[in-house]
Amino acid sequence: EDALLPAPQNISILSINMKHFLTWSPVIVEGETVRYSVEFQGEYEREYANESWIPICECSLITATVCNITEDISATVAYNLRVRADVGASRSEWGTLKGFFNRITTSLTPPLMKVIADGYHLLVELEDMGPAFQFCVLYWKKGQESRMQQKVVKEVSSVVHLDTMEAGPDYCVKAQTYVETINRSSSFSQTQCVRAQGGRSMWL
Amino acid sequence: TAGNKIFHFGPCRISMSMTEIRSGFTAIKANIQARDPIRTLSILSHPHSLHKVKSSDRCCITYHLFNFYVDKVFKHCKTEDSYVNRKISSIANSFLSVKRRLGQCHEQNKCVCGQESAEKFKQILANYEGLNVISAAIKSLGELDILLDWME
């Protein structure tokens, strides 16, 4: 195997809401299909297993320039990642991610939510973001922010009942996510307000 | 949820993503246990189960066991199966995080080791060293749920 093939460049991580993707720039070889293979190395491998690397078989000899590494980044430690290119019998050197990746740095976005007034019942529907996520939901009577109430939602079921409303005032809700394994929270979602109106749902 | 669990060993408080570790182990348990032909011996439970450990010794035993798995066991469990190797890496890296936190407790004298825990751990090491290293490592990995159940 000669290593004339250039190693992949611009290797970076895209990590949002605990979903982690390795991306890189394509290696261009006129008239040829370039394939890529990805490997990872956790802190354990560096310190206790002779700096060994572990291949990700779903990203072995792929043509895409992105690899979902979420399942393998499953501890809150520093990971190394690398990718190389293959064309026919030619194989490049490894291109390695600059610096380590620790899932603690993932970007956490506010959760999508839908607030529903079902008669006098204040309900919220939360986006299912996966098992790593809990939600902190705050709700209050408009104008009474000081009497804000909180509900922690650990398992996303279809709809969460927050409160029984009085007729007349608006009720407002906002939510944020919390990821226990990295002990971090997202910022709050936009506030949504609804009002109870007899038996009919009412959106504001 | 991802089931981070907070373990309180006296003054030592350890957060651990138990669900992630358990799901990683469950994914490979049958594969690993099938590689262990010696069904009559146990590393962790012979002659006494971990459940006989006094609560005051639990932190130290846990500290020793996490060091044991990180220092001795995982590195000898490499298989020809890439999927199994990835799951072992996931467990090993999670154990490394917990081992560090337990180590901090130990350094701050929040995880004191008494005579009984030393004896208990010596017995576990003797069980381990009574087998060849690969068999001992595979058996220890196959018994991981004994440790996790005991911790929980």
TrEMBL record, chain B:
For this chain, the annotated S-S bridges are 12-105, 59-111, 60-113
Cell compartments where the protein resides? Secreted
Gene Ontology terms for molecular function? cytokine activity
Entry keyword set: Cytokine, Disulfide bond, Secreted, Signal
Q: Show the Pfam families listed in the entry.
A: IL10
Highest taxon, organism lineage:
Eukaryota
Entry GO CC: extracellular space
Family assignment?
A: Belongs to the IL-10 family.
- State its role: Immune regulatory cytokine.
Stated name of the protein? Interleukin family protein
Q: Which organism is it from?
A: Calonectris borealis
